C-alpha cells in the first residue's frame, strides 16, 4: 500500500455523527509532526503524532438530550492503511493519508433533557474521521 505522507499542518476531519450523539461545530484537529524527515519544509508525522489532533471542549447533543454538553474528540485508532509498513522517520513508521480512522468522543459535561431534569448517562461515543494533507507528491509504503 502506497499513500501520501502526512506532515505538520495537515488536518484530521472528524465526522459530526457519533451516534446517537451529534458533535457540533467541529473544527479540524491539526497534526504536528515529530519525525526528523521533512516534506516541503515541514516535519513528517509518525506513529503517535495522531494524538496532536485532539480537540477539547466540543459541544454535543442527542435527540433525547437536546441541551448541549461538551467533550473531547480524539483519534481512537488509525485505519490499517494509515501507517506505513516500510517508510520510517527517526525509527518510527510515518503516517499516511489513508481512508478512515476510528474516533471517540469523551463526555466532560453531560448533555441534558430539555427540562434539565435528566442527564445523558453515556460517557463515550464512537465515530470516525479522515485526514486531509497539503502534501500531494511524496508517498510512503
- Overall shape: elongated
How would a crystallographer describe the biggest sheet?
8 strands, antiparallel
Count of strand segments? 14
Task: Calculate the terminal CA-CA distance, rounded to whole Å.
Answer: 6 Å
Helix-and-strand structural type? mainly beta
Main β-sheet, spatial strand arrangement: 3-4-8-9-12-13-2-5
Proportion of beta-strand residues: over 45%
The residue ranges in which pLDDT falls below 50 over 5 or more consecutive positions are: none
What is the element string, with H for helices and E for strands?
Answer: EEEEEEEEEEEEEE
**Mean pLDDT over the residues:** 97
- State the helix count: 0
Radius of gyration using CA atoms only: 17 Å
Helix content: under 10%
Walk me through the structure:
The protein is mainly β. The chain has one domain. Helix content is 0%, strand content 46%. A hairpin with a 2-residue loop joins strand 6 and strand 7. The radius of gyration is 17 Å and the shape is elongated. The chain starts with a strand and ends with a strand. The model has no long low-confidence stretch (mean pLDDT 97).
Per-chain topology:
Layout: E1 3-4, E2 11-14, E3 17-18, E4 21-24, E5 29-30, E6 38-39, E7 42-43, E8 55-61, E9 69-77, E10 83-89, E11 92-95, E12 101-109, E13 124-132, E14 139-140
Antiparallel strand pairs: 1-14, 2-5, 2-13, 3-4, 4-8, 6-7, 8-9, 9-12, 10-11, 12-13
